[in-house]
Amino acid sequence: MITISLCMIVRNEQAVLGRCLQSVQDAVDEIIIVDTGSTDSTREIAGQWTPLVRDFKWNHHFASARNYSFAQASMDYILWLDADDVLLPEELKKLLELKRSLLPDIDMVSMPYHCDFDESGHATLKVRRVRLVRRSRNYQWTGAVHEDLSIEEGGCLDSDIMITHRKSHNDSDADRNLRIYEMLLSSGAEFTSRDTLHYAMELHQHRLYEQAVLYYLQFIDSYQHTVEDEIHVCSKLADCYYHMGNRDKEQEWIFKSFTYDIPRPEFCCRLAYFFLEKEQYHQAVYWYKLAIESPPPVNPWTISNDVARTWLPHMQLGLCYYHLNEYKLSYHHNKIASGYLPDDQSILNNIILLENEILKPAPNRQV
């Protein structure tokens, strides 16, 4: 059986650190917590779980801190998590089984990451990241923000062990990453392709859409990316142009995504909404149905959005069919949507309205 060092970097994570460690403690043989300057009780909480609490003078470079944490490890493999991540009980069982069965030629294990959720708890963004690496390989982190493991070779296992991101409501420094990027820019630092993408995403998140577009386009022009990156950026550019009110450019990037793969559900829903706004309900129905019928991704590294293939298109089909006076079809899709969102009051109200509409007696025919 392999042994595992859990390596984490933290700062002011008193609200979530214990939850994270509680969820994973049974699967790891060593816990290393690197504190980058907490001013709350994070360090004291870490000390309750492990004697291996280390200090790292913050230098505005996440990869440096990650590399320092990895350098402290002594077990066969290194697992990394953020303080607001958790391993759900079923996933913990899978990780324990992996410890017992991991083949000796595996140097790294990737795991799906559910990193964003809607109000009902459905994952709206799923990505995959390498989470477990053989320590003797000495893989290094790169990137000041949104750091990546630099992995050029080695046997990889794409596991189904899911890591869940449970973001703290206390986001006291939401502008931190943006400030770091701007500091790097002002210092004349040269951005890598990944830096350019992540800076664009930070600008996007801060609703600085015009600036975000410029950096997304720079990333596209760099040629240092995968097909999945291209599709992801098409989605981001379409969203930026939507918020900027440029619907022609929004559509341009939707259609651009179709040149890389079959239409993904999120693009189908975006195009359907364009027609819904124009009250072209038959066209909207076509694209919402296509979103539902879209096959699940074959590539495990596909960035996916299950909302766009589940409750969202069903709810919108309910609206389209209502406007088309197809009340039974509207009812059908609202019922499916309610299966995903059983407490959504607007959907429940729709169902009641439609039941009344369907049960209305037919008007008497005039002879």
Structure report:
With 367 residues, the chain is of the alpha/beta class. The chain has 2 domains: 4-165, Spore Coat Polysaccharide Biosynthesis Protein SpsA, Chain A (Alpha-Beta Complex), CATH 3.90.550; 176-357, Alpha Horseshoe (Serine Threonine Protein Phosphatase 5, Tetratricopeptide repeat). The protein has 14 helices and 11 strands. The protein has helices at residues 17-24, 42-49, 62-71, 89-101, 176-186, 193-205, 209-222, 227-243, 247-257, 265-277, 281-293, 311-323, 327-340, 345-358; strands at 4-10, 30-35, 53-55, 77-80, 85-86, 108-117, 123-134, 140-142, 148-150, 156-158, 163-165. The strands form 2 sheets. Strands 1, 2, 3, 4, 5, 6, 7, 10 and 11 form a 9-stranded mixed β-sheet that branches. Strands 8-9 form a two-stranded antiparallel ribbon. Helix 7 packs antiparallel against helix 8 (227-243) and helix 10 (265-277) packs antiparallel against helix 11. The longest helix is centred in the middle third of the chain and has 17 residues, at 227-243. The chain is globular. The relative contact order is 0.08. The model has no long low-confidence stretch (mean pLDDT 92).
